[in-house]
Amino acid sequence: MKIKTICTIPAFLVLLFAASCVPATKYKSVKETGKMYLNERDELKTENLTLSMDKRELEAKVEKLDAETRELSGMLKQVTDERDRLRADYNKMQSKLSELQSAQEDLIRGNVSETKRLLSELQAAQENLQKKEDLLRQLEQNLDVKKASLDELSFELEKRNARMAELEQILNAQKKIVQDLKAKVSEALLGFENMGLTVSVRDGKVYVSLDEKLLFKSASWEIDANGRNALRKLAAVLERNPDIQITIEGHTDNVPYNPSGGQLKDNWDLSVKRATTVVRVLLEGTRIDPKRLTAAGRSQYLPVDSRNTADARQKNRRTEIILTPDLSALYNILNRY
Fold first, then answer.
1. For a Cys staple, 297 with which of 119, 209, 272, 292, CB 3.0–4.6 Å?
2. pLDDT tens, 62-85?
3. Strand order across the 245-251 sheet
């Protein structure tokens, strides 16, 4: 599998947003682009879930191979014991055959009926001995097959264990990267956590959630000084971690947006506009590669609180900055198998 490259909104949108009057069709294009990047983000989330399912499947297969190995080991011991028993029987038959041959020589000059009886016993003993030899040979062949099968299963088990260990190592490294990133972001934004900012980890990603009151006035997309200060501190952390992909999502409440003759039509436009405004502030005066950023508007359709109350609507009016670590090492391992 391959990681899809997350690109920023084309440069000409910047010019469009800077213009005093912009056609509505251009904003429709922006919304469609945001939706496309949102789908890509959801696809990454699905791939992460697939990886977890793949890990559980591998663990189940390893457990099954362990059980099969124990069963073959038990069967191998049974076959070995049977072979030893047949060898003991074979030795007894050889001894008895020697005795009969000796008795035959002693009685060769005796009566004919006794000689015939002894010859009959000797022939029966030889036939029985041949059957034992054939059975012993077959058991030894089966034993060789079982040993080969056991060796093959052991080799396969070692390969799977090695793959599991490698996957576990990469997953642990990814978790550490996410936790370290969360710690750096939390430290940089420490003074803002009581002002409507939270930092959390979900689905292997770091989520920085900023309430509307920290960034924007109601129905506005202009970021105030306090919000710009928080975003600049975050940008400094992102600038020092170039392998992190950045998605900015704008969210609104379910109250219809009143454009009052402005350039925005509804909550879709407002959420996209707020996301792109945050993108510009993060890029302002930094060396962050614009290719790392994606802006998306979610309108009112991804609330954190679905109740129809003022408190719930206040929680839903937010901007989320989603930080995704580089998963290319993990994908490379999966592609090798």
1. 272
2. 888 889 888 888 888 888 888 889
3. 197-202, 205-211, 318-324, 245-251, 293-297
